[in-house]
Amino acid sequence: MMKYFQRMGRSLMLPVAVLPAAAVLMGIGYWIDPQIMQGGDPNAIAVFLVKAGGAIVDNLPILFAVGLSLGMSKDKDGAAALSGLVSFLIVTTLLSTTTVAALQGIAPEAVDPSFAKIGNAFIGIISGLVGASMYNRFSHVQLPQALAFFSGKRLAPIMSAVAMLIVSAILFFVWPPVFSGLVSFGKAISTLGPVGAGLYGFFNRLLIPTGLHHALNSVFWFDVANINDIGNFWASTGTKGITGMYQGGFFPVMMFGLPAGAYAMYRQARPEKKKMVASLFIAAGFAAFFTGVTEPLEFSFMFVAPALYVVHAALTGLSLFFAAFMHWTAGFSFSAGLVDFVLSSRLPLANHPFMLIVQGLVVAVLYYTIFTFMIKKFNLMTPGREEGNDETDEDIDTTIPEGGNKFTPMATKIYAGLGGDENVTSVDNCTTRLRIEVKDMDTVDQNAIKATGVPGINIVGKNSIQVIVGTEVQFVADEINKIRK
Predict the structure, then answer these.
(1) Which structural domains are found in the chain, ordered by start?
(2) Residue 193: exposed, middle, or buried by beta-carbon count in 10 A (0-12, 13-18, 19+)?
(3) Transmembrane region positions (predicted)?
């Protein structure tokens, strides 16, 4: 079950990765005309850019349905994406306010208000899962000769439509109480104000290792429980100083805190290993600061020093609490890095965003001080402090294929360390990690893999291993797939 949810988290990265495009368009539009949504005579170029970005943000549930269906399918075929889209269109049409009014024989105004919110991220996720399931089950089914045209991949969208008829019938009765429960949960957290934001930040980081943080994010960031913090912030439809409270506190952590923690780990590394870990922490720290992608840093210590990771989660919660308490807000569409900070800082709902930089400097001092103290006090085995033999197995065949690119040597050595064709059964990747299935975990040479300079390795099951590479992971995965026979 855990592996299934991890696959979901990985698959959701595809539609989420589209959001930076919306950030660029909307950010530039609001930069040109910060009062674009406040009436008056708006700048035509600003309107053009903001509406173009809104086309992505406003249709995020559809992107979830298509992207999740594609990512969860067994061979990533376009027919799976179509199945997810068909699933979403079926359920959102059947459970729209107009259709429900006709089914119940009542006026549209009397329909339960939950049906007006049926086209949300949660329904998009369900649609994507159904679409992927139908594709995996029916894409290779052969029908009788008379119906042969509808066999195989053409059958998947058809069966998705049939399946969603059943799902829609269930949701007709289940959705109103489920929606009410989600709204109640969101309202309960919202009533806690800054404390609720702090609790959210704490659990958001704690769930990163499992990939389940996406489920928590959907409640606060998207329109699952009427909070929709990201959408409302970028659409400027909220309360200044309040909307964005579930985003602003991440900037001090991702841009300043984690890089400072990385510097603390570098300072505490063994002298002979400082050069090796420096390359890791410089690259990972820059990724966190510039783009807000923190997984390379977090995975470098979360399993070797879990107590330190819990402290990181607590500091994240503290940062969100304080930013919300001070009503300092900024927003992001992808993650809390410099790019989104600059683009969002002139949006109408951005409230004293540059105070988040001041907070970030304080957070950096806290991270560096606490990380240094804990590493020394408890002798934590953070990168560069590991004991044991650092040599790799010289018998491993790491012959570099001719041609290729700069990622080929790294991919070749990682693949050899995994055991090569005889041991590797599948290779996939998410935003920053290689996700590999192997026959025998004992065959994997972790030292050989670490020698390539990757931030870390995560054993997630008897036959499942993750290699943390960073934001260029796709290119490494592509090279490994070229090497595989």
Answers:
(1) 2-191 (no CATH), 192-387 (no CATH), 408-483 (3.30.1360.60)
(2) middle
(3) 12-32, 44-68, 80-103, 115-135, 155-175, 244-264, 276-293, 299-323, 354-375
